[in-house]
Each structure stands twice: as structure tokens, then as C-alpha cells.
Amino acid sequence: MPLSPWALAPTPTAPPGQSAGGVPVDVVVALIALAGVLVSAALGFWQWRRSQAAQRALEAERAERERDRLRYEDQLSRERALWDDSRQAAREVERVEEAALHEARRAAAKASDLRQSAEHYRTLLVEELRRLKILDMSKPLDLEALYVQLQVREEATRFASQEEMEALAQGTPERLLELSAKHAKDAQATAMRPEDAVRRFGRFVVLGDPGAGKTTMLRHLALRTARGEITPALTLPIYVELREFVDSGMGDVIAYAAHSCEHRYGFTGALDHLHEQLATGRAALLLDGLDEVLGGGSADEAERAYQLVAAEVDRIATRFPGAPIAVTCRRAGWRGGLRAFQVLDVLDFAWPQIVTFVENWFAADRTRAAGLKGALQANVRMSSLAANPLILSLVAIVYERDLELPERRAKLYDRCVEVLLKEWDSHRGIRRFGRFTTDRKRDLLEEIAWHFHGLGLRYYPERDLLAVIEDFLPTIDIEPAHAREILDEIAAQYGLLKIQATGWYGFLHLTLQEYFAAVSASERGPDAVAAVVAHRHDPWWEEVLLLLAGRAADASGLLLGVLGRDPTDLEPPAAGEPLAADDDILRQDLMLAARCLIGTPKVNLRWLRPAIIDATYDWMLSTPSESVAMDAARVLVSIGGRMLHDRLLDCLADREVAMLRRAWIADALGDSGSVRIAAALTGMLASWDLDRDEDDAYPATYMVRAIRRIGYAPAGDVLVGLLSGPRVDYNYNWSSTLAEAIATLAGASGAQRLLEVSDNVPEPTRYTRNDLIRGLKHSRDVATGERLLARIPSAPPEDVGAYVTAALGILGPAAARHVLDSLLKRSDTGWLEADPAALSAFTAKPSPDLVVPLTEAISDRRRAPELRWALVSVLEALPESVPTLLEIISRDAVDLWTRLCAATALGSLQHDAGRPALREALDELADGRLDGLWALGDYAIAPRIASAMVEIGDEALVQRKLVSMVQEVLSSASDRYDLDQFRLDTLLPALALTNLGRISKTVNDLIQAAVTADGILGTTWAEHIARADSVPVLLGMLRPETHDKVYAGHLLRIVARVVDDVQHVPQLLTLRQDPVHRGRVDDVFAALSRRCQVRIFEDGRVVEVRQPPA
After folding, report:
1. Which fold would CATH assign to domain 131-348?
2. CA 20 to 30 Å from 519, out of 88, 169, 336, 509?
3. Which ranges of the sequence are coiled-coil (predicted)?
């Protein structure tokens, strides 16, 4: 605050108590105090005013600030609201995204769980389906180790005429078995694998007889589906036993399958997954046993169950059109009802499949495998019956339990019938609607068999069969009105009787009819037995008689009757008297009596059994007929017994016995399946000096074969030791036999030794080397197979075929593509000329993997024509090649040779798209423009074109052309040295493929010309085209004074193959008087008596065999 002006002026001095102005101090003080107060008041007022102004300003500022605050807060509130809204929106987006991510994670986890569950299901299903238990076996088998590929084909319902079926229903058992074999072979020609049916049809029904392998096939199909082996995308099998589905009471098959998956395999959530996989075609529905739903309390209930299941399968097929569906059903239980399903038949096993099955079954015991194969091969009835997989399984089980075959085949048949009538369904838990006990079923089947076998019928009209059933039913207190119901029950549920064609029935196999007829005769008593013995010369009754002998309480009377002796005369024949009272040239009564002993019947007449054996033994050594001697040796081996076998072994070792007889004995001993005999043969071989004594060398070849057939592995070292002898260098028949036995029995070391020896065989004996190499195809040593495969591209041409054969034999069809690739890498074709059969190994077990490389090779113009032509032979064994071949032949730019190759393969597969190319090639052949292929042996062009043209209906055309070409070759030659042998070697086999009955005179003229042109070689050509009406021509050329034994033997061998008229007997008996020809003539008599059902006697009698009703 500024000082007052007063404060700077000088202050006058005043008296005490008085100011300088004389004013009293108190007044001054008071005034000063008042002034101070006033000043203070003024200052205070000023300060107040100032404070008020400041306060007002502050309040105004505060108010402004408040307003600013309120404005800010308002703005902030709005911004916060916006922020909150945006945050909320962001949080919502985040929540949605998080929820979506969570759902994705959950779905992924669920999918992962489903995949894991599905994979777990597949693993468990595979393990379950792999375990195969047959009937009362103590432990299950491994399906994959045992399985043999079944074949199926499109069903062809037969509507046969009365005349056709009557012709098929009658004849000798041999003829009927031949017809069955031919039918089976024809069926195989159009067959396919089940997995091919999945690819081709998508949905199908497989029909088959009981035990035909339908369930096993479906189980194996499930295994392959689970592994993605049918198509890569198809990996989920849904396997359902329809009987269990019906028992569950559920109405939806897929829901039942899902329920089963969850409870049996822990596959939770399976239903949606199954639906999804079926909808996308990644799952296959495999439904087993449609016929098995026919069980139940009544026929009506069974029929309703069938129709409901069929409707459900149809519904699924409609809902999931892209899903493969396979259904199995017994043939007699098939009622139809599945729309848009292809119906297929499952085929019986062919012989190669039987062999594979036996080898798989006895994989750990090759001796037993060889023994069973030999036993089956030695008996045509058993091998034919074993074409049914169930019966073959029973045969294997019985054989495994040391019930020898075929000696005890009657007991085997008992077992088979018991299984088919009773156990097969009961072991699988199937309940059938039935009216009979098992015994009553057998009684009826025996009645049917006895009645129709007595009439000589294999098949019978339905009305006649119903009449037999109607006559039988009252004997067991059932009304005849039930005959139809009974027939349907037996045919549908047990398969022992089956529909053979519409309106015609027959037993599952002729052997079963013979078996039931034998049982019936045994139970009917002595009169029925005598009736059968009276028919002993009739082949139709032979098997019945043999089975009857095995069932007899005492077969003495039956055997005496067979020998033509009085059954009441129990004394042995006098010295010098033949055992058979009035036997024929072939000693058929004696041989039949010996065959009766094979079944080890009970013979109370003690002298009779040894007398029959001794007489048969003597006949084996004395008969001039090779075929009869071989038959006698086999019968003796089959009768068996240690003493008899030792007697035969002693005879084999006896160098005084004719070499051929010893060989036949050795060959027959191979049928025994006896390890003891194999050991004896091995010891005998080890002790012989085969390089010094030729008389031992020939029987030794058959001894080695016998050891191999028996499967005697301990012989391996001895056989390997025989490789060091010089005989291996020059005797390729011995070498091939020895090599096959070593490869089979001596393991990897034996295979290696064979390779070493083959590498050191001298060049001039290359055929021996090739046989040693080919023998390796029987080895199981994969390492050897791979070494052989590696040699193919660089091997000498003459060895290529042997390496191919051996490599494929060891490595199997799975390696076929690699073997073919190795072969096609070669730049030469000399191997074809050296070994025309080099490619035949590919056709033994054809692999579909070969279709692409083969069709590419035949279309490749850079390859030699002869190679492309030879490759066609493999394509002809592959029906899968048809679509590709059709595409090739339709191309405009394809060259003639490719077109011919494709046309020939198509023709052989019964497709006529290549007809123009084949006809053109036939013209080229006739004009000599295809001469380069005459010498190709198995691939020669004439037979191949002829075969293809016959298949497509051009038989008459090709026959005319071939006859003309043969005539030209024969007429143009000035002498035997001028003959074009290559042409005749191919043209005559080609001509034989046509129906020669239409040109019989021309055929006989050609035979006459061929034999006249070149004696022995001419008989080889004649053999291709000879027919029954050629016999006079052939016999007319038999002039002993001008022709040697070999020539005559060739002609008589041809006569034996075709003769069918007894009018030739007198001429043959005259020829038989010459000891040189006696054996061959007896071979002709053996064929003639069998073919014409006659007996031929030394005195010239020809007695016809008849078939009167029993």
C-alpha cells in the first residue's frame, strides 16, 4: 500500500502531553486512531467491494465452469453411450464369433470322435469277422488265411424242355459228372469276383445252396471294404445278419445297425454318421441271410417276415441311391421283392480253388495238404462233392482228425448229411419252420433216392417227385395233402434236394443220391441188396454197391455175388479155378470186388478178402493193358494196410518186375498219403545208383512224384542230393520232376540250390535248365521269386518263359503287373519263338491289373506283331478288358493288327464287335499273308481266330476256310519232306474247334491223307480231328506187316479215345491175338466197355449192360 504524504514531512517538537500544534495528545491520538479506523474501514470496504467483485467473478467463472462441466458431462455421456453401444456391439460380435468358434471346435471334436469311433468300429469289426468257426471246431480259423476267392455270375433262370431234361436226367454217372463239370466250366467263363459285382452293379443279391460260402464271401467283402480295397472312397462296411435284425423287433435296418454299433463296438452317435456315409456312397450295406428270416412259428409268419425285410431293404435302396448294397440268400429261399437289384449266383469251387482251400487249411502241414489233395483227385465223386465249400470244410475237418479218405467216404457222407440236415442251422442259431424230425427227413430222402435211382434218373419232374412224397407221408402219419409243403421245406431249408430247372428237381449232387440209395438198400434187406448186386456191371449202380458194401454187417455174400459166385457156397475155389466165375477180358468182376474192399467192410468169410487181394495183385502184374494195370495198382494202394503196402514196396524194388509196372506202382503209392510209404520211397531212392541203372531211373521219376504228392518234407535233402547226378544234364523229364519236388519240399535252401544247378547246366541241354527253373514255381521262397523277377529283362531268350513261369508261381497274381512290366522291357521277341508258352503263366491266375498295360501294348505299333498277338492270350482270360477292347476297336485310326488283336480277344469273350476284322484276317490267313505266326505254338493264329469265330457264331465260315487250307497243304506236298508241318500243326487243331459232325467224310479223307503223307507224325495230326466214325479208317490203316509197334500204338490210342460202337470188337479181337498189340487193344476195350456199357469176353461175347428198375 503507498505511504501517506504526511509521513514524509518533518514533525515539530511539542510540549509533553501536547502535540507540536498544541493540540492535546489524546485528541491527536484519537484522531489518528479515528483516521486509522476510517482508513481501515475504507480499506476494508474497498477490500470488500473488491472481494465481492472477485466473488461475483468467481461465481460467474464457477457457473461457466459448471456449464462447461455439464456440457462436457453431457457430451461425455453421449460419447460414453456411443462407446458403450459400440463396445456392446463389439462384445456381441465377439460373443457370436466365440460361439461360432466354440461350435466349430465342438463339431471338430465331435467329427474327430466320430472318425475315431468309426475307425475303432472298423478295427473291431475286422477282428470279429476274421474269426471263422465252422460247426464244432475247438478254435476259430483265420478267415483271411483260409479264404478262397468265390466267383459269382448273373443268374440265368432255366426253363428247360421236357426232352432236354430227360436227356440230362439219364446216362452213366461218368457222363453226368462230365456234364456237371462242363456246366461248372461254362459258368466260370462268365463269372466275376464279388468285389467286381460291387463296382459293376452297386446293389445285388447273391443266391446259393446251403454251404456255398455266401456268408464267408460277405464277411470277406466287409473286410475288404473296411480297408478301402474295393474303391478308395468306400471304407465303411455295415454288416447286418438279417435274422438278428428280425429278432430285435426293430423296423429300421440302419437304426438296428447303429444300435448294434453302439452296444457291440462302443460307436456312440453312429446313426447320423451311418446316414451321412450312406448318403455320400462311402458306406456299403452288407445284409446276410435273407432266407433266414423265414424262421418262425408258422409259414405265414415266415412269409410276412420276409416281405417286411424285403420292403425295408428296398426303402433303404431308394433313400440312399449311391450306397452299395449286397444281400445273400439261399437259392430256394429267394422270394424276390428287391427291385433294381441284380440277382447273381454263387458258383461252386473249381479244382484250383479246392487246391487253394486245402493248402490254406493245412498251411502248417504240407504233408497233410498233399495227402488230402491226392485223395480228392483220386476220386472224382469226392472232388466233385467238395466243390461245395461247406462240404470241403467238413472233408478237411474229418481228414484232420485222421479219418482217411476216400476209404471211409460212407462215414464222411453220413457226416455231411447230418450237418446239412441239422447242425448247419443249429450252430448258427437259425430256427426253421419244420414238420419233420431229422430221422424222418432222412427216411423221405432215402425213399426218393431209391425210387428215382431205380428208374435211372438224375433229375425228375416236380409232379413225379410230389407223387413219391404223397405215397410216403401216410407211413409217418402225415396227410398226403402236405406233400407240397414238405417239398418246399426240404428244398428251401436244407438244400439236399434242389430245383435244377423250372419244374425239375434233383439231389444237390449225384453222390448224395447214390448215398441215400445205398442206405435205403441196406435198410430194405437182402432182396434190395441182391437187386443192387444184380446191377453190378452197370456203372449207374457201381457207387451204390461200393457204399452198400461198406455198410453191410457182413459183406461176404455181397462180395461172392459180385464175383459171380453163389453167395451160399462159402468154400474157396479149387486150385486153378478163377476167383471170379465168369469174368470178362478186363476182369471187371474181380476189380469191382477189390474196390468194395476199399471201404474196409466187415468180411466174416476169412479166406475171401486175401483171395481178392491176391488175385488183383496177380492181375496188376499180368495184364497187358497199361491203363488196367495202373487201375489195379491204385485199387491195391487204396485197400491199404501195412502188409499190402509193404508187398507193393517190395515189388517196386524188384528189378525182375517190368519197368513200367514198377512205375505204375510208384505212382499209385503217391495216392496213399502215407508218411511211412514216403519215407520208404526216400530211402529206396537214396540207395539206388540212378546213373548206372536205367531200369531204376524210370520208376524213380514216379517215386519222386509220389513223395511230392504225399508232401514228405524230410525227403528234401535226399532230393537235393540227386541234383548232382549227370542225369540232370540230359534227362529233362527226370529234371522237371525232381525240380518240382525240391521246390515243394526243400524250402529256401532247396530253391537256391536249384538256381545254382540251373546256372551250370550245359548249353546243349537248355530244355533241362528250363525245367529246373520252371520247377521253382512250386517254391514259397519269396526271395527266390524276386531274384527270378530281376533276371527277366536280361535273361537269354530261351530262358525267359521259365523265369516268368517260376516268378509268377512264387509271387502270385499280385506280382503279375511287375512280371509283365519286366517282360515288356525287353527289346527282343526271340523268347516267344523259343518258348511259345511263355505267357501261359499269366492266364493261370489272371490279374485285372494287367488290362491297362496289355491293351496299351497291343495298340503300340512299335512293338512286334507277334508279341502283340501273343499278349492277346492273356486278355482272353480277363473279362474286365472288354470295355477297353470295345473302345480300341471303335477307333477310326487304329491299325489292322491292333484291330485283329482286339477282335480276337473280344471274340473269345463272346463279343462279336470284331467280326469284320476276324473275317478279314481269315482271308489274309488263307492267302498266306500271315505266315510269320505259323510257328508260334500256343499263340498260332489259326486256332485263335477259329476259336473266336466259333464263339461269335461264324463256325461254318471258318470251317470251310480251314478245310480248304488243310487240303491245299496235303495236296501240294510231293513227299513227307515237302509237307508244311507248321501249317498242319496249327490248322488241324483249329479245325477241331468246329463241329466236325457236319463234314465227317471230309474229316476221314483228311485223316487218310495225313497218315499216308507222314506215318507217325500223321497220326498226331489225325488225333486232333478223329471222331467215332473215323474208327474204320483208323483200323483200316493197321497193317502189322507194314507198320511198327509205335505207329500201331498211336492209332490204337486214337481209337480208344473215340470208339463208341461194339461192331469193331471182332476186328479188335483179331488184332489182339498179336501180343504186340494186346495191351493197346485192351485199352480200347476198357474205353469201349465204359462208353457203350458192355462187357467183352475172350470168346467174343459182347454182353450189354442194362438198367432195369430195381
Report:
1. Rossmann fold (3.40.50)
2. 169
3. none
